[in-house]
């Protein structure tokens, strides 16, 4: 356990009323208290302090009254530890109880100056002044005290012992379990299976509480139940840094009511696609997991993309210390905007490679690299280990559950539905991750009735829900909704495992059939458990018509993937007469597929240049051109690599400098 940060230096007898003046103690909000920390002797402290920074003081730090607000406000402000010549005893106890590390070391207190960068190793007690190159020896922290601090204090530690630690197991081997952080680090199980929670927890907050929560608060309420080996402090840190000004709206995931349908807009992040909802937080979850599991190797994020995941993953991991990211995409299987977003991506640790094949080829190739024992040994020798940013990683899937909980709660808050009223959800999906997150939200207790799976002309999922047979032996069709151009839906394995009664052996056999024969058929008993789902699909012509008619009748402009869902939603209602409120998941900004959208609205737009199409879309929609689009209009192409599917292993070796 270590801490690293810059120093704020103070003198003798800094009492608790100086740390947090009594006039602010009418608030019980830790963030509010933190905003006033040290204000009387250092008015800009709360603005200047960064997570990890330290306080170094002289004698009798924390003297005065016994209020625990003092260490709490420092910890909440981001202070990682306090070093002093001596401490007041009551402050010492309060600090440990709330999880703020403190070290008595007179030599260090005298030898460290304001602004110095200092590293503390709590295991050994060593204090290293990086600025001056000097080292001091303090008392090592006992193991129990470290556990107390990692848990966020005595109360959290006690509660963590009471609550059940949720473990994860592979869909192909139910015997071996791992923690959430281990599952995130691994990405894919060693046996080729996907990690799933041993059980789906129930929401432990009421909808009445949830309806008044922000997106960040909802994220914590949901994710804490899945990521039980993350402390409250760690998880909130990840959430706060994921869902911030990178999104162009404070609500993060706004609802738009269009006619009698509610669109959950998930494209307000940095790369204007729903992948931002999970890939904004995954880098923080992964680096936290690496720290907590004492991972010393660099983590190589290996990712296949049908367009959106690639850019969102690249943006999330760019220049993140201790990581490399390699993205493979189908050369002719993404939109021009999607390709430009990837090949112009900056970052010393980023690599983008176009493969000669389709997304299924890229995804199968990446999975093969994960399972390649020879490559694993080579990586280990070179100081690397693989993880994934694809939705096969449970660290991608868990954050996606959040927006279904949030959307339902906001429908309640807005008076559109009553608490407990069932809704239907239509999700455009190819790899099945987005709709699987909705399925998990339903299992947690969100009142969802039907989960409607919307496919494009690559309708392998529609056929599966209609017949119980999954068959990828068919033509791969390039469509205007390329993120759904998929014939091997990886996340469906998690659903198969569930409806098979968590029978890993049965699931493994079905996955073997898929790999070797290209198809499998589930049993009649398993099909009965698919009653939550309905399937539908839209042709290219139906997709265009949906975009055009929705715009002409309402003024609302949607992208091609959302249009697939809107068409399937409408035909489901017409066929069934089901009049429940409908939530349609809007997965990308229309600016990401401008040519297809503008041509659908007016065929004559087909001859316009891409740049003119952006301006035209702004004019008809009233939506500002997103920063993500402005950035690529004149951006330099930085990644030009290409390879065949059979050369992916060789390409990874070359990028990582592994010589064979």
Kindly summarize this structure in a few lines.
The chain is 42% helix and 17% strand.
Element layout with pairings:
Blueprint: E1 2-9, H1 16-19, H2 30-34, H3 45-48, E2 54-57, H4 69-77, E3 81-84, H5 89-98, E4 102-104, H6 106-111, E5 117-121, E6 126-129, E7 134-137, H7 143-151, H8 154-162, E8 168-170, E9 173-178, H9 180-186, E10 195-197, H10 207-210, H11 215-223, H12 232-242, E11 255-258, E12 261-265, H13 276-279, H14 282-292, E13 298-304, H15 308-317, E14 323-330, H16 336-343, E15 350-356, H17 359-370, H18 373-382, E16 384-387, H19 394-413, E17 423-428, H20 433-444, E18 448-455, H21 460-467, E19 469-471, H22 492-499, H23 504-517, E20 519-521, H24 524-528, E21 533-537, H25 540-554, H26 560-576, E22 581-586, H27 594-601, H28 610-621, H29 627-633, E23 641-644, H30 648-656
EC number: 4.2.1.33
GO molecular function: 3-isopropylmalate dehydratase activity; threonine synthase activity
Modified residues (N6-(pyridoxal phosphate)lysine): 275
Strand order of the largest sheet: 4-3-2-1-5-6-7
The first-level CATH class name of one domain? Alpha Beta
Gyration radius over CA: 26 Å
Uncertain stretches: none
Q: Let me know the largest β-sheet.
A: 7 strands, mixed
The coarse silhouette is: globular
CATH architecture of one domain: 3-Layer(aba) Sandwich
Distance between the termini: 36 Å
Q: Count the beta strands.
A: 23
Instruction: Fill in the CATH topology of one domain.
Output: Rossmann fold
Question: What is the count of helical runs?
Answer: 30
Helix content: 40-55%
């Amino acid at each position: 356990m270590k801490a690293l940060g810059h120093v704020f230096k103070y003198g003798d007898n800094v009492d608790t009323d100086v740390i947090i003046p009594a006039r602010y103690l009418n608030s019980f909000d830790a963030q509010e208290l933190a905003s006033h920390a040290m204000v009387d002797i250092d008015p800009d402290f709360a603005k200047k302090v960064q997570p990890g920074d330290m306080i170094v003081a002289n004698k009798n730090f924390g003297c005065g009254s016994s209020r625990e607000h003092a260490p709490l406000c420092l910890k909440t402000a981001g202070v990682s530890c306090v070093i002093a010549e001596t401490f007041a005893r009551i402050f010492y106890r309060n600090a440990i109880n709330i999880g703020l590390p403190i070290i008595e070391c007179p030599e260090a207190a005298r030898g460290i100056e304001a602004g110095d960068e200092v590293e503390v190793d709590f295991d050994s007690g060593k204090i290293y002044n990086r600025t001056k190159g000097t080292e001091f020896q303090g008392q090592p922290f006992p193991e129990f005290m470290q556990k107390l601090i990692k848990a966020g204090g005595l109360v959290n530690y006690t509660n963590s012992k009471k609550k059940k630690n949720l473990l994860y197991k592979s869909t192909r081997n139910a015997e071996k379990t791992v923690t959430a952080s281990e599952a995130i680090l691994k990405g894919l199980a060693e046996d080729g299976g996907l990690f799933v929670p041993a059980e789906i927890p129930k929401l432990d907050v009421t909808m009445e509480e949830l309806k008044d929560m922000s997106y960040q608060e909802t994220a914590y309420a949901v994710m804490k139940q899945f990521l039980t080996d993350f402390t409250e402090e760690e998880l909130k840190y990840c959430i706060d840094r994921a869902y911030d000004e990178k999104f162009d709206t404070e609500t993060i995931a706004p609802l738009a009511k269009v006619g009698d349908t509610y669109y959950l807009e998930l494209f307000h992040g940095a790369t204007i696609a729903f992948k931002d909802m999970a890939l904004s937080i995954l880098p923080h979850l992964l680096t936290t997991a690496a720290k907590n599991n004492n991972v010393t190797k660099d983590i190589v994020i290996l990712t296949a993309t049908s367009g959106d995941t690639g850019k969102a993953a690249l943006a999330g991991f760019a220049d993140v210390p201790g990581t490399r990211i390699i993205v493979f995409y189908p050369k002719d299987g993404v939109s021009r905007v999607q390709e430009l977003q990837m090949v112009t991506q900056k970052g010393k640790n980023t690599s983008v490679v176009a493969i000669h094949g389709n997304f299924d080829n890229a995804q199968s190739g990446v999975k093969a690299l994960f399972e390649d024992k020879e490559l694993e040994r080579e990586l280990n020798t070179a100081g690397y280990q693989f993880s994934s940013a694809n939705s096969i990683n449970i660290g991608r899937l868990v954050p996606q559950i959040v927006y279904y909980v949030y959307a339902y709660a906001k429908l309640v808050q807005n008076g559109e539905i009553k608490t407990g009223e069932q809704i239907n959800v239509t999700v455009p999906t190819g790899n099945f991750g987005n709709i699987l997150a909705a399925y998990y939200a339903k299992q947690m207790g969100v009142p969802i009735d039907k989960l409607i799976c919307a496919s494009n002309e690559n309708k392998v999922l529609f056929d599966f829900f209609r017949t119980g047979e999954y068959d990828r032996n068919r033509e791969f069709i390039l469509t205007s909704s390329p993120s759904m151009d998929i014939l091997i839906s990886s996340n469906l394995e998690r659903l198969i495992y569930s409806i098979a009664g968590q029978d890993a052996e049965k699931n493994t056999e079905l996955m073997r059939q898929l790999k070797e024969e290209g198809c499998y058929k589930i049993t009649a008993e398993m099909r009965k458990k698919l009653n939550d789902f309905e399937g539908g699909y839209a042709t290219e012509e139906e997709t265009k018509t949906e975009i055009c008619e929705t715009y002409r009748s309402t003024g609302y402009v949607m992208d091609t993937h959302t249009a697939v869902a809107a068409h399937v939603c409408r035909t489901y209602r017409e066929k069934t007469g089901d009049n429940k409120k409908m939530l349609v998941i809007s997965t990308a900004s229309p600016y990401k597929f401008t040519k297809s959208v503008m041509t659908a609205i007016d065929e004559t737009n087909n001859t316009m240049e891409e740049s003119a199409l952006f301006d035209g879309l702004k004019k008809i929609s009233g939506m500002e051109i997103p920063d993500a689009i402005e950035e690529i209009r004149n951006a330099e192409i930085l990644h030009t690599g290409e390879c065949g599917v059979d050369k992916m292993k060789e390409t990874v070796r070359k990028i990582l400098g592994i010589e064979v």
